[in-house]
Amino acid sequence: MDMLCSSLVIVFESRGAGANLVQKLMLRELMDFRLTGAGNTDANPMPYRGDSAATKAFKVYCRLVGLPYLFETLGQIINDFCAALDTEAKKAEEDEPALDKSSTNLHRKPATPSSMEVDPTKMNSDEDETINRLALQLICQKVFVKIFRSLSVFPL
User: For the range 13-20, what are the long-range contacts, defined as Cβ-Cβ under 8 Å and sequence gap of 24 or more?
Assistant: First the structure.
């Protein structure tokens, strides 16, 4: 069933009719649900919850059409974000506490805000909640702007 649904969606999408196929399969499942009274059984209380042709086709279609959009829209910002985290992790390794030769005290360089944690119970003692909140807001704004600017190419 998986291979059949995948093949059908790919063939139909190559002809520009993938959305129509998924729509018809989903409407068919809804009609079967209404006609058989499947909503009254405990096994399948809602449509589109089972392992049907409609749900399989929908998953394949979403991946086929949605992944290129997501990669184009959010790929660069996620890549930049991961690179920044890697850079901060390497810097944190370099900034490990070093033994001061003049005393036995450990000296640490000032910490950089590498976390976006805003839950005070999960934050390290050297983190500032305000800085973390602002860093989280900044990355969320970047993602929102990228999505908003890509509305004209959003797959339907």
Answer: 13/61, 13/64, 13/65, 18/61, 18/64, 18/65, 19/61, 19/156
- Sequence ranges of the domains in the chain: 2-96+110-153
> Residue 104: what pLDDT?
45
Q: What is the pTM of this model?
A: 0.56
Tokens of 122: 């999960």
Between 99 and 82, the higher pLDDT residue: 82
Cα-flanking dihedrals φ and ψ of residue 140, to 5°?
-65, -40
